[in-house]
Design a protein that fits this description.
The chain is α/β, with parallel strands linked by helices. The chain has four helices and 40 strands. The protein is flat and about 90 Å long. It starts with a strand and ends with a helix.
């Protein structure tokens, strides 16, 4: 797929300095750019590379002025980083602009779908499923009975969406995701065995939710596990039954959230964080990677450690943690000196 400098400038509303007809078909880092590549310069740290890059087109800020000759055609824009991101989004839309129903695939007679749908081969669409307009369901995806999917949703290959799940508009579900599996509910018996507690609820994803590859979101025991509008989930996250995650919260990979915990809006949770069940985490909370959360958290707290404590207290304590061997040795020396003087 090729684009000319004129086409790109039109998309970005930019100004061309150089050849308007030069073509690109690949994206590259500015330091690695070759003929036929498109790149960008946003960070001043990389400015020297613009004089050596062989990329055919480079997106730059409008205030950039070349100090020597360039091999590359420039497209000047208000914000090079944002414009490059916009171009990536446009490129993805063009690349993923598949439509039609591939065979073999299965669609239940009671299912319905909107306009401009793409359904990849070997996909399964269950009974009473409702799929909106402009949705892309990639090969080997499974959509269970009574699932509702809004407009402009992408479900990548191999994702599994169990029955009764509700997905809003503009969501992205990556490969290997499982939404709506049973929550981990078992009741202990007197003889030491466990009996399964039926998980009769569902999962609700509101609009603009992204779910990374391999992430699992369990259905509720009763009611719903709810992922609110704008939440972004990284790869390999476990979200247990009846959890609720507030709007625009971001969670990094390998985090585990136990059942019935409520997380507020605009939180940022690092990788490999463990969160116990039946607690409430407030709004705008920041949790550093590998922390363990075992208590209710107020709004705006910043936490680190396991069990997690205030981020400031953790940093102060860490100074002592790393000096513990020296501190122990000093104590032993003082103790020996005291004993010698007795």
């Amino acid at each position: 797929m090729k684009f000319t400098a004129s086409q790109i400038a039109g998309i970005l509303e930019g100004d061309i300095i150089g050849d308007p007809d030069v073509e690109v078909s690949n994206l590259a880092k500015i330091e690695e750019g070759a003929e036929g590549d498109l790149t960008f310069l946003a960070n001043p740290k990389y400015k020297p590379y613009i004089y050596t890059t062989r990329a055919s087109i480079t997106i730059v800020n409008k205030d950039f002025e070349a100090e020597s000759d360039l091999f590359t055609t420039l497209i000047k824009v208000e914000d090079a980083y944002k414009s490059f991101s916009k171009l990536l989004e446009y490129y993805n839309q063009v690349k993923m602009n598949k439509t039609g129903i591939e065979q073999p695939s299965f669609i239940s007679d009671s299912a319905s779908y909107g306009e401009n749908i793409y359904l990849g081969a070997f996909s399964y669409i269950g009974e009473n499923v409702r799929i909106g307009n402009n949705c892309k369901i990639y090969p080997n995806a499974y959509i269970g009975d009574n699932v509702s999917i809004g407009d402009n949703v992408v479900v990548f290959a191999g994702a599994k969406i169990y029955s009764e799940t509700v997905i809003g508009h503009h969501c992205i579900i990556h490969g290997g995701v499982i939404i709506g599996a049973d929550g981990f509910g078992f009741a202990p018996e007197e003889n030491g065995t466990y009996s399964k507690v039926p998980q009769t609820g569902n999962v609700i994803l509101e609009d603009y939710v992204d779910v990374g590859a391999g992430t699992t979101i369990d259905r509720a025991t009763l009611g719903s596990t709810i992922i609110r509008k704008g939440v972004k989930l990284d790869n390999q996250i476990q979200i247990a039954h009846n959890v609720e995650i507030g709007e625009n919260t971001v969670i990094a990979a390998q985090t585990g959230i136990a059942g019935s915990t409520k997380i507020g809006k605009n939180c940022i949770i690092g990788g490999q964080v463990g969160i116990v069940g039946h607690i409430t985490i407030g709004n705008r909370v920041k949790v550093q990677a590998q922390s363990g959360i075992g208590r209710n958290i107020e709004d705006d707290e910043v936490l680190q450690g396991s069990p997690a404590i205030s981020y400031g207290d953790f940093n102060k304590s860490y100074v002592h943690f790393k000096n513990l061997p020296k501190l122990v040795q000093t104590i032993h020396q003082l103790d020996k000196k005291r004993n010698d003087n007795e």
